[in-house]
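Two records follow; treat each independently.
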Amino acid sequence: MDLTREKWLPVFLSDGKKTKISLYDLFDESVRDVAWPRPDFQGDGWKMLIGLLQCSIAPEDEDDWEEVWQEGIEPKRWTEALQTLSPALQFGEQKPAFLQSFDPLDSEYISVASLLIDAPGGNTLKLNKDHFIKRGCVERICPHCAVIALFSVQTNSPAGGAGYRVGMRGGGPLTTLVVPEDEARFPLWKKLWLNVLPQDNLPGVAQFPLIFPWLAPTKTSEKPGNVVTPENAHPLQAYWGMPRRIELDFTHTEAGKCDLCGELNDSLLSQMRTKNYGVQYEGWRHPFSPYRQALKDASAPWLALKGQPGGLSYKDWLGLIMEREDKFNKMQPAKVVQAAGRRKNLGLWCFAWDMDNAKARCWYQHRIPLFNLPRSTQFIDTVSLMVLLASEALSLLRNALKSARFEAPKEAKVDFSMVDIAFWQETEPSFRTLLNILANDPQRKEVFTRKALRQWERELHSYLFRVFDREELTDPDCPDSILLRQMNARRGLENSYRKNKALKDVLALAEEQKEAKHAES
């Protein structure tokens, strides 16, 4: 199957209809989005298509990028690009095959369901712990779904036992893609183009084995030090990492309905082979991920951010959009976010698996509409201080709840994850409101801005006590001794909050320009 010519890519059209297209149809203005049956496949579908554009028609510079954005791609240029890529996009039994081991594997067959990140693993099945994601739900998949499933497991590759390598960003990496704020207005190709980076030269066919690792014998990693880096491979291999050695079985297929997309197909796949010690990646900075580096060690590696329990919240936003530091880390946005620069009316699409080693706990995705934020020191400092106060207020709330519930709160162990998630979700609207105001007046010169800052602080304070009272002061039959402990904890929360340095700094910011105005008059 030639992935350039086969109509394998499911898409939604501008009239809402769903169909399948070949890559030759990608620049059709009526194509609005990919239409995969799983949310992780949606994101990975975008990443795969962006990688194809990057390796075939990347712009030379910003002017070239802008010209394509305005005028589109000439059909002849796209046709020639796909013809060049065709040898790397063959999918099937014959080697080399897209994202599969170049060399035949001699391991035992396993279920094709193992391509799915959230499929229950061998130990889970052995211990009968597949309570939420059941075994047997996916037993046969069509070749079209197998393409995106292969790409997904390779790019998100989690820990999988001895010698089973993680992806070049680690397991469960966070992806941040640039999107238009009004996505429905734009064709798919323009949304993808927002994430294509200018580069000096397009690769030649001779460089393809350094970009597409399935075109050459796998550089296995049984021996220490046998790693693949940007220096001994092509930088564009970042889009096509292949840490897993996988070989789909195309000799034992059957007709029926695909367990993923539900479509009928004459060649459903049911099994595959895998083998450990695939490609081991080191030193890569993937263009789709934000990174952090520990401040305490200037030689520490830059690590891609990962999916976390509860997903993203507004405390993470600045680090996804601009370079900044907190008490522990330096943070850099993804290269595609940095390249978007000052373009208007953009947002971020952020998504990741929250992984516990090989176990997928949850899939998270978020849209962040606030992208065109000021880069001034005053703005960054103000927002950082707001986030700090919110974080410390949440910590004080947790401490107060423990003090209300236990005679020895320091020794008590309590899971406050639901309180944490609710805090960041429920205080986000007021944070967004203030952020919009600060974006238009980053130096806080306007009276309205300073009033908004004080109003945000009052809403934060009110939220803490609403939660405390709801959690602790709703039992009319509460014994006096426990009620006394609860009231002492409430007073302690008020005192600790009022003494907090971040609070004093926020209130000072709300007053300093007011004082400066009086001095000028």
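The next record belongs to a different protein.
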Amino acid sequence: MAKVIINDIPVEALNDASILDAAKEVDIFIPTLCHLDLESFNIEHRTGSCRVCMVEVELGGRSKMMPACCTPVQDGMKIKTNTPEIIQIRRTVLELLLSDHPFDCLICAKSLDCELQALARQFGIDHLTYTGERSSYPRDTSSNAINRDLDKCIMCRRCETACNEIQTVKVLTGYKRGFMAVVAPPEMKPLNDTNCVFCGQCVNVCPTGALTEINYINPVWKAINDPTKKVIVQTAPAVRVGIGEEFNIPENESATGKLVAGLRRLGFDAVFDTDFSADLTIMEEGHELINRINKNENLPILTSCCPGWVNFMEYQFPDLLHIPSTCKSPQQMFGAIAKSYYAEKIGVSPKDLIVVSIMPCLAKKYEAAKPEFINNGVPDVDYVLSTRELAKMFKEAGINIAKLKDEDYDNPLGESTGAGVIFGASGGVLEAALRTVSEVISKTELKDVNFVEVRGLEGIKEATVKIGELDVKVAVTSGLGNARKILEKIRSGEAKYHAIEIMACPGGCINGGGQPYIHGDTTKLERRMKMIYTEDERKVIRKSHDNPYIQKLYKEFLGEPGSKKSHELLHTHYHKKREK
């Protein structure tokens, strides 16, 4: 421990702690724009690039200005955080950043969520002190998922940290020097021409509007108001535990029924649940897993719900593309069933049926636009909105969902089980599969459907699950940096598993790139996870194969899991992509 004094307050802190960490211990606020708290990822990252967190440090009779976020404490330090000189330094840094920043705050997607805007307000900056030339770059919307507006980049390098150190995708880097310096792909390539997986974690950590999602609100409004189209909507599991934060719904109160009621008031013709197609995914994926175990080939199976990690595999582990499940994601399965089975039931042509997805994930926007999910010019899913975009639509329409009475999803594509709900949290897809596979293999009913050993926010979880006489070895990873560790062990033969769940975003979909911003508050992820499992426990049916509407779908339309029709509609294939 190091004993230091901060603003005349004695503080004890770990020797490797930063001054910023030590100040938090005594509730002293030090502003910063570049700092990311990466303790939960076991990553030590101290950039000190923004210089907003400057403090005065006296040690050994000498005093100098130091950045608090990347200066470790030392025994005997005397630290001042609020002298007139320090405040003026911070103000000057902010004024210089603002001098090269667009003033379109009223129409910026990050308005009121922008950390630069918040600090400017906190420091009372209400006019430009420095004027002159501003840097300008073309906007990148090539991916259909992420909007990159480098005019708003402040070189904090948080996106670079998220991409390179947490996700290990390594697409972003500091580019050019001096006044023209930005964080971008090498040679300023569009994101679609890189290895980007579109997970959106860069968007989540960007303090300004340099990185945001591509917005599809206006096309969705246009579709809803088109009398020639029937517009239906599906909501992903993690959306119901994120949307409530935008409307101050108490964390112990489910927002699901209010979400459904709000979507009806927006004008959607039917409101369905992606949890239904999550149950459908388990039927197909579970069948695939059982076949592989019986044949002892292409193991471990990798659950295929996350388009972010699919792209990651195609670029960085093309030699392992024989092990992912061939199942489409629940989003794409829903679209395929909606534009075949459901369209036929209601007598609507697939081209006149518009499917809108509400997703916690930005990679879902990219996924919906992939050519393999477009049949005869008709996409399985037409538009994908993030949880944040849906909140904006509600507010635009004057709908406060917190005030609405709960309503139920429509059928037949709205009935789901607890197994479908838990897809939203890391470990949930694998647990849902185990609930079904266990009963199919053992031919006995599970007394306890809770596989708690695969739950939690840890980046890597490993377990051995007893199914009948078989010891099934499983692993769960979230965050692509953790996925890389497991995949490299599989590649080298060091690790042997039967099944693996990979989620691109740390913590799973509850922390997706389209969820409400948490601004570093990881306790929000814990609350979202708790709500997911609470909703699972409240469900009458908690196993995918017990869903009566799934049983009816197979009886009336698909035949059986793994059938020819199932493969045509519900399965996909992967491509080896060359790393760029």
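Discussion point: Residues 2-82 form a domain with the Ubiquitin-like (UB roll) fold (CATH 3.10.20.740). How would you locate this feature using only the token line?
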